[in-house]
Amino acid sequence: MxxxxxxxxxxxxxxxxxxxxxxxxNKWEEWKYASLKSWNEKDLDWAPAPLNETSSASLQTQNGxxxxxxxxxxxxxxxSFDAFIAANPTIAATWEQRLPILDQNSLYDLNIALTLxxxxxxxxxxxxxxxxITHDYILSVAKASAVQSRLIVYxxxxxxxxxxxxxxxxxxxxxxxxxxxQEIYVSEKANLTYVKEQDLAQNTxxxxxxFITQLSNSQVDLFTFSLNAAYLRNNLHFxxxxxxxxxxxxxxxxxGEDQLMDSHTVxxxxxxxxxxxELYKGVLLGNATGVFNGKIFVRPxxxxxNAFQSCKNVLASTRATMNTKPQLEIWADDVKCSxxxxxxxxxxxxLFYLRSRGISLANARTLLLLAFVQEVIDRVTHEExxxxxxxxxxxxxxxxxxx
Amino acid sequence: xxxxxxxxARIGExxxxxxxxxxxxxxxxxxxxxxxxxxxxxxxxxxAGREDYEVTGGSVEFLGKDLLDLAxxxxxxxxxxxxxxxxxxxPGVSTTNFMKSAVNEIRKYRGEExxxxxxxxxxxxxxMSYVNIDQSLLSRALxxxxxxGEKKRNxxxxxxxxxxxxxxxxxxxxxxxxDALRIVAxxxxxxxxxxxxxxxxxxxxxxxxYIVPDFVHVLYKGKIVKSGGKELAxxxxxxxxxxxxxxxxx
Lengths: 403, 250
Ligand SMILES: Nc1ncnc2c1ncn2[C@@H]1O[C@H](COP(=O)(O)OP(=O)(O)OP(=O)(O)O)[C@@H](O)[C@H]1O
Ligand SMILES: [Mg+2]
Hints:
- The structure holds 2 protein chains of 2 kinds.
- Chain A is of the alpha/beta class.
- Chain A has 8 helices and 19 strands.
- Chain A has helices at residues 2-5, 8-21, 81-87, 89-97, 106-114, 348-356, 361-377, 383-402; strands spanning 59-62, 65-68, 76-80, 119-123, 133-139, 145-155, 160-169, 176-186, 191-199, 204-214, 219-228, 231-240, 246-253, 260-269, 275-284, 289-298, 306-315, 321-330, 336-344.
- A 10-stranded mixed sheet of chain A has the order 2-1-5-7-9-11-13-15-17-19, covered by helices on one side. In chain A, strands 3-4-6-8-10-12-14-16-18 form a 9-stranded mixed sheet.
- Chain A is globular and about 70 Å long.
- By secondary structure, chain B is of the alpha/beta class.
- Chain B is 41% helix and 28% strand.
- Chain B contains 10 helices and 12 strands.
- Chain B has helices spanning 40-48, 72-78, 95-109, 117-131, 135-139, 148-162, 178-191, 205-210, 230-239, 242-247; strands spanning 2-11, 14-24, 29-33, 54-62, 65-66, 80-83, 90-94, 141-142, 166-170, 197-201, 215-220, 223-228.
- A 6-stranded mixed sheet of chain B has the order 6-9-10-3-11-12, sandwiched between helices.
- In chain B, strand 9 (166-170), helix 7 and strand 10 (197-201) form a beta-alpha-beta unit.
- Chain B is globular and about 60 Å long.
- Classes of the chains: A alpha/beta, B alpha/beta.
- At the A-B interface, helix 6 and helix 7 of A face helix 2, strand 7 and helix 3 of B.
- Residues 40-41, 85, 170-171 of chain B line the site of magnesium ion.
């Protein structure tokens, strides 16, 4: 019950729950490889001031504070959650019924407790927003801090939207733990394309919780490109709560030296005749650690579900490690589900072939790694974003292999 | 150009090359024949620098340099080319894509200016005509779903682009239809000059009708057991290898 959670007593309760549990440690099953234990001991600023940075993006979150700059596209509103609920009593009822799977997530409590302004990006029925909305999620703090942020995206029936999120840290920032919760509601026949580019500093820990509810005949194409951060965790949940729902989850992570990237995905099929396609790829450089935990639930009602999951990883260094865990729980009998995870080295034969043509070892490896990740990048239809991501990934791989 | 002395190599515990001696001069064509498993592809791989093989003895000098001291890419830049018996499939990498890198890396090694996109395309077009290869094939992922003949043709196309000093063609004729064989052989002959040399590994005389060798060598159990002129290939075609093997007293 989000709207009551926002009253101060709900926030207090959430804070109590968080205090009782603290930051997740590796004793928690879902946080086995990715402990945040050290944050329990830090002297933190829990509400760092918003910054005065400006970017070209229309939607900007600065140290957790989200604003819309410039003119809103026709049929789009950006208002506080309270105002949104007041204007939409029927939606209030819907929110009450939603049920995220919170996997021992004390961070969600922390977010409820300390988020000061929850905003809603609201696309009205039948509105197709033709220009992609860019969302810059910016971090910059003077001393060690924890930043809370929450954004609601609400698409009414037949609405369509492309969101490009760029999360980054301003150079010179002190260390920061960013705890970003998004709740996204995609109504009947609505369409959302969402590209997340996570390119944060080496002293940044970024936890992204994205919970998406989809109703009948809706489609979501979500991309998570995890490029940099000391520690990146994506808790991505899809609640497929209608028929003929299409959910596409695409992920690409390229953790480097001293970086850990962790994707925990949940696809929860609750109604019949829907499909989900999950394609995750990782290139692990240096002594990087990667985690992929992909849960698929097919509830008893969800007959004729098609759910596919694939997670492929290349260890580009002998010091890198990857932990994968697919988990399928299927209660319906007439379904098509498949999952597959692979982790391996680059093909030695292919490397030799390219070198025998005069291509240096480092360039041959870069070529093969790019060919490996291209499949995910190519699915991005927003050209400018695709080019930017390609450049960033090439340069990250090249830099790492040159060392 | 190439001087191989007592070359020995093994993979794991298995000795494969047991003392190869071979001298190749600019302008020459050498054919290497021999039964399956005798070590022909191993010799080709060792020359190209495949790291799976451990060289346990001998030396190889190529254009005045110690070949065994060079990385595979340096060997290519020095002018060595291997047309693979079994070209590998590389998903997501097209011939056009990697050959652009290859050409410019080699040019850089030689202190030459890189080719820009326009120059590269022009050169590519010209070389495509040598082996009658289609642009669409070069834009596809390397060898993925290529027919046997298309793979071989693509190898010779790459050779045409790189203009090596020494080309080693490892069973380039196998899998080619009659017309393709002629086209590929014509491509090879077109690239022939007094400055470069070719090693042709083959099982059949057929190819040698088109690419006429100056010398024919028989490799058997990791050694060259017989050498001769082009007529040796004809004799092998007729008589097989038994007479050579029995002459060895085995
Ligand atoms: N990776 C390997 N591991 C073990 N043995 C190998 C390996 N590669 C080659 N060999 C062995 O080395 C020997 C020589 O192989 P090679 O491929 O050089 O023969 P070849 O003369 O080219 O034969 P073909 O005419 O069939 O192409 C064979 O007995 C082969 O089984
Ligand atoms: Mg062979």
